[in-house]
């Protein structure tokens, strides 16, 4: 009986052990499933991060440096830019990533409010819109062009280069107005101080000088302004690809290499020098012609000594290419880095700061030119 009882007890023990083993196996299996689920969730999280990274890498409307042309081609730097500066502002160049790419619903709403059909958009802009390459803020600036006063909006619809600058920078028009106002005011004050009671008699000299001053100031702003680019990429090779990848100015936000920033400093300097040389040739030649005409018409007019046209033009070109280029690069860099967002929030405040900054730049430039001209023997 005891032996039988022992067998029975042993059977129960074995049965209990088998049950426990099955439970342990179930626990192990469950643990494996939990671990597998954890790994799956981890993979999902990684995938989500990859997707978010990819989405953040979708470029907004590219901003080229104005040196890549205004005909409009997608991808200002064609992926050749460096990684020295990420940048994330409104005026950033090719590293600017769109957090507000226009989706279909927003697009329809914006076009309806502007009373514009997508079929009526310019071909290059329509391409960028339909391919998701335009941010909401950029599209809004384009649609608002028609609201600009004094026929500027109408002119922008006909002049692509102007349109792309107005869209590329919400501060472009304000900057032009500020620069021209300062140039006009300071130049007029200098002319009044120099000519005094002869001002009205020599009004033709003044008009010639002020016209060249305003033309020069306009091009100084124009050449450094960001340019919005629309449409499909154009096939570019060699030097075209390099030039098209450059920023608008040295300190523009974007993923540009130190070499690209150095190249744009030199290229803008050469453009400034060319503008200065041609403007001086035209203006100084006109001034000398006026002096000669006055001397011929009135023998009592005292002779005026004027520097030779070629010498004056070369030095003015060098001055713009070196002094003006460096100063305006700094001014545009400050406005890009610190004022770009303020222009969209508080236009009067941003304009006031820009006016003070550019007035100071103009004053420093005037003083520098006096020293420069005396140093080279022009005055």
Mean pLDDT: 74
Shape: elongated
Q: Provide the low-confidence segments as ranges.
A: 1-15, 33-99
Question: In sequence order, what are the helices and strands, one letter per element?
Answer: HEHHHHHHHEHHHH
The number of strands is 2
Alpha plus pi helix count = 12
Task: Give a structural overview.
- The protein has helices at residues 2-56, 104-114, 123-130, 136-143, 152-158, 160-168, 172-195, 203-224, 239-244, 258-297, 309-345, 347-375, and strands spanning 63-64, 227-228.
- A two-stranded antiparallel ribbon has the order 1-2.
- Helix 5 (152-158) packs across helix 6 and helix 8 runs antiparallel to helix 10 (258-297).
- The protein has 379 residues and is mainly α.
- The chain is 68% helix and 1% strand.
- Mean pLDDT is 74; it is low at 1-15 and 33-99.
- It is built from 12 helices and 2 strands.
């Amino acid at each position: 009986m005891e032996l039988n009882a022992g067998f029975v007890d042993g059977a129960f023990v074995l049965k209990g052990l088998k049950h426990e083993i099955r439970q342990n196996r179930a626990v192990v299996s469950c643990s494996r499933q939990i671990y597998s689920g954890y790994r799956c969730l981890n993979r999902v999280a990684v995938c989500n991060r990859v997707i978010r990274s990819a989405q953040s890498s979708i470029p907004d409307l590219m901003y080229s440096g104005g040196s890549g042309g205004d005909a409009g081609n997608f991808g200002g730097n064609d992926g050749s830019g460096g990684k020295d500066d990420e940048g994330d502002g409104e005026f950033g160049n090719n590293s600017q990533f769109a957090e507000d790419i226009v989706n279909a619903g927003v697009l329809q709403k914006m076009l309806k409010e502007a009373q514009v059909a997508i079929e009526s958009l310019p071909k290059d802009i329509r391409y960028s819109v339909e391919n998701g390459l335009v941010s909401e803020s950029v599209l809004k600036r384009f649609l608002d062009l028609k609201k600009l006063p004094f026929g500027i909006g109408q002119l922008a619809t006909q002049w692509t280069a102007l349109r792309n600058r107005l869209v590329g920078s919400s501060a472009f028009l304000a900057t032009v107005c500020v620069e021209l106002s300062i140039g006009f005011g300071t130049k007029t004050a200098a002319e009044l101080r120099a000519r005094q009671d002869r001002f009205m008699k020599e009004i033709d000299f003044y008009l010639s000088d002020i016209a060249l001053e305003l033309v020069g100031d306009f091009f100084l702003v124009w050449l450094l302004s960001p340019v919005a680019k629309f449409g499909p990429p154009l096939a570019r090779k060699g030097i075209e690809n390099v030039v098209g990848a450059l920023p608008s100015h040295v300190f523009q936000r974007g993923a540009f290499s130190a070499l690209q920033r150095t190249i744009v400093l030199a290229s803008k300097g050469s453009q400034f020098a060319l503008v200065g040389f041609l403007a001086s040739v035209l203006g100084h030649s006109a001034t000398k012609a006026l002096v000669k005409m006055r001397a011929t018409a009135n023998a009592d007019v005292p002779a005026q000594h004027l520097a030779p046209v070629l010498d004056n033009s070369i030095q003015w070109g060098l001055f713009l290419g070196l002094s003006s280029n460096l100063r305006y690069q700094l001014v545009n860099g400050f406005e890009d880095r610190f004022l770009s967002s303020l222009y969209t929030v508080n236009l009067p405040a941003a304009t006031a700061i820009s006016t003070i900054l550019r007035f100071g730049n103009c004053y420093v430039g005037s003083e520098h030119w006096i020293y420069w001209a005396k140093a080279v023997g022009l005055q």
